[in-house]
Amino acid sequence: MRRKMLAAVMSMSLAGVGVSSQALAADPEFTFKLHHFLPPMSMAHQEFLTPWAEKIEEESDGRIEIEIYPAMQLGGTAPRLYDQARSGVVDISWTVGGYTPGRHPAATVFELPFMPANAEITSMAVQQYAEEEMAEELKDVHLLAMHTHAPGSLHNRNQEVKSLEDLDGLKVRTPNKVMGEAFDRMGSNPIFMPVPQMPSALSKGVMDVAVLPFEVTAPLKIHELVEYHTEIKGDRGLYAQFFLFSMNKEAYESLPEDLQKVIDDNSGIELAGHIGRLFDKSEATGRQAAVDEGNSFYTLTEEETRRWKEATRPVVQKWIEDMNDDGYDGERLFKKANDLISKYEAQVNGES
Hints:
13 helices, 11 strands
């Protein structure tokens, strides 16, 4: 009887040790803060950032925990997000590169008018380009991925835009510096503005036209503030923004090699392509929300699209010249970006 009782006590003790060990193993060794600017109902938060964080936690067996803070909950503004990750205010950030003009000049080739294909293709192109051409510009962070959204459209408060003449004098939200120059050449009055400020600007009449992909119009309810949408079809869209998904270098380097590998396995070209596919899919969802709202849609004719391309061609040439003046080979970078888009276009479309 005494032997049975002792065995039972030992069994209970060992079981307790087991539970305690499991509880200890479940405690994360590293907790990282991920900060971004979009609301929690946005596609990027729900379908990209949250699943990515959960995948890191799962593949690290719970040793890495990632806390996500949407809508600038940790303070600051969207243009400061890259620096927050660089300086260690946060561990990981996701933001638009064009919000900090001049910081990543080599990447701005992907912002040029009529440069981007769909988001999947362009995202893989910009990621390879970053790996091969932007080591110096990105040296202060550990890059997880660069990507783009789907090509943007025009979302108009009070009137249809069917031609260059219809843009004359309109206050147009410009997403970045080069597209500001493009819309200036097309006769409008460009206003640079980060995405979170746009609903208020539209409702108050500060701007007439929001230039955005449909993906972001639904979570910000921009489709409820406008009546008309102008779309540009073809192999290359009107414009795209590049995004930076960055990790603080010290935070990454604090990880042991096996956990660095978990991060690495969820970074790079494959991640960029995955994000792009999510943005392409969400573009259709956002457009449908505007359809359901009863808004009007117009697609530029091929002839009018050629006029827009011709009107913005000097912006491309000026970009090349400006890059040359800054010590880059602008012509080579422009050709490389185009060649990479063509490469991934053939890969995605299954061409030889």
